[in-house]
What we know:
Chain A is mainly α. Chain A has helices at residues 28-33, 89-112, 115-118, 121-152, 156-184, 193-201, 206-217, 221-249, 255-282, 290-313, 316-320, 329-346. Chain B has a two-stranded antiparallel sheet. The relative contact order of chain B is 0.10.
Amino acid sequence: MSNASATGTGKPARDFTFIQPAARRLTEYEALTVHQQPDPLGYDLAGGGRHGAEAFLLRSDGSMPWKVDSTRLRHPDWYRYRDPAQHWQRTYVRHQEQQESAIERATEDAGHNGTLAALDAAWVRDILSTHWRACSHLEYAIFRALCPAQREALGDTISTMLCFQSFDHLRHAQDVVVYLVELERHNDAVDDAAGKRAWMEDPVYQPMRRLAERILNTGDWAELMIGLNLAVAPLVQQVSISSLVRANAGANGDDVAAQIVTTTERDRRRNLAATEAFVRMVLDPAIAEAVANRAVIQEWHARWSGWAAQAAEALRPAFAKLSIKAVGFDDAITRSRTEHAAIAKGLGLSTGGGA
Amino acid sequence: MDSGDFVKAHDRVKDFDWTFHYEPPTRRYPMHYQVPKKTSDPFRHLVRDYVKMERDKDDRQYGAMSDVMARAKMPAKASERWTEVLKMAVPVTTYAEYAAMKCTGQLVDAVDNAELRQGYLAQMMDEVRHTNQEAHLLRYLAKHARDPEGFDRGFLVRGQNMITRAARPALDAFFVSDPIEGAINLQVVAETAYTNPIFVTLTEVAAANGDEATPTTFLSVQSDEARHMANGYATLAAIASVPDNLPRLQRDFDAAFWRQHSFLDSFIGSVYDYFQENRGGSYLEAWNEWIGHDWAGSYIQRLEPFGLKLPRGWEEAKARIPWGHHNIVMMLAATWPVHFMRIDPLTPRDFEWFEKKYPGWYALYGKFWEAYAQMGDPKDGQVPLTLFPQIPPICRVCQMPCVFPRYDQPTVRIREADGRKHAFCSQGCEHLYALEPHRYASAYTWFEHYDGYDLERYARECHLIRADGKTLVPQPSLRWDKMWTLDDIRRTKIEIQDPLKNLPADGAPRLMQPVTLQ
């Protein structure tokens, strides 16, 4: 590129024409996100300059500020990634503010109209306080793990997307806590400490806790994103939150819990789409690394699906505590396996390996 | 939710951690500090409160910019002298935000303290916000300013520019080491000492010069910064409360101050003093108030009971403040063809202001600026670079030209180490190198990149040609009838040469004495 402003007419473009838009026109998301992370071998020095990779200050161990081997995947240009949701901070915060306002109003209304006081004690004690609250620890672990993932990611559009994913999961974890605090004012069956006890001691939740520790120990940012969104979300969160909490909430008169989970499912769909776009980018047959990338992703997918399946399958006893049951464990597992397989099939991945 | 419930919710959201049982926890980043598990809480907001607060602020800022200000064509009415410097300044501040986002991602991972982590997470989102806000400002100016060329490519060329590149060693320090070292660079020094001069005082200058877009953006940014300063103070107080941390803390604090001072004082001072048209206060006055009085005199002194002292480079930095940035702007103007803005010559009215604010200024810099004003016409083919018998080399550590504390009394030193020759602008930068030489093994100066380029080749490769295909983006004046073109710059036959090649080295880099910790 010799002329960053070229329009072909001699008139300035009055826009960031150096960014290659994914579609015909540059979007606001692209303009405000692309080329924020330095790329010493790319645009920063017009292809690498005369000294190759440049770093003004190396890490204290002498490695580069961003490391090519921070993921086992390879791509010639990580900056080509585009989040299908096209979120930048303003659109993302607006979206979450709308979801949070809706939850807040629904909770307030349910408190006033007596819905919260009338909730069945077993539902409140066993499902909300114990099960859902235990699962909030998994959400918190995902939030934490995604923070260093965004630090290490090899492009700005990927980092920004991972920041939003991280924030999603903190929101999910906090919404459980805040709902139980509200509920406590209306319903004596709330026992907030039950969730932590279950998380630490109950055998039902130990595969999930083990999974959470694995998540927190995962250093490869792409592996983490792929494992979370292609295996953990369709298998673990689908069974533990969508089926056990949301699908049974209506029958148990708990519209607020259903609404909270519905917002997390919206986030989950967005994060799945973001991950699918990422996987398609690294498996694009047009890049030389596609074959090797496929083998790595397949390996990750099998491993994470196995871990996630263990965590999901251990939840049968939690379903047994439902006094009013709309969706049971077997239906939940079947649905999650179907969803998991459909996602894998859509990306051309095999599901043989634990799920 | 009443206040009792709020406190309850807030306590519970800080109780998600547990001790690993199934596998040993991984440490991703080097940590030289012990962090107490419980400390004061710098951020008492839930996600729900946070998104409401930020959405309100976003609506006010973007609403104002897209509505009244754009319709009234306000950006095009601002002082052009002022608006031009934003072409180089905003890409730098935007990168500072992005680097801060990386820093807080490390902190959430490494700091095992739920109170502090809450604050870091909110800050991580804030930094995404600020990156987007400032990128939006740059794009807004590309759309609405009288001269868009430069605004339209700031993010593309900031890594290639002699001056804006120098932001990287300071800002990369936010996230390339021990996460606490990053926090000291970001929160304790850059944000607490320097964001008030950048986002508060500089916006007063902007508004006085008819620019409403920058204050609208920057004041919204600054509304988050108070929380970040609280994060910094909470982090620092937590670290300082463990006596074993103190030697490392002092070392990292000393290094962080020097890195941030080396770039930020020259950068902010240049923008502040040289691009005002309707003139008010000086950077020296702002520095004395915000950094000398508030930061060093109040904020840091409150930590003295813990044993933390003012950074060791404080006196050397203070000595550089009155003149440092004047030398950098002189270098900027002398090398105008390699930048991406138009630099307005100073006038006698400016001279009076400078002499009043910086007594002795005219004797040091007046002649240069008079000559600069005479050399703007492309017909004459004169570039002010030729006024200097010797061009200063660039410092290996801070990447700034070695013109400190004054161009005529530089503290530059040339050393040889690790198979290369290095220039260091100061004792402070030489010390940083000697302390950790391996961290500069991939650092190259602007001169090392472009040695041997003629100005035409530089302009072509570094995107400095306007949409007409011949006129340069950089110009030595604001005159539309005297614009330099590729033909004009070709006629000067100037070739970029690395001055370091011809300067003899004098031994190896040396540490400052006494060396407290290595």
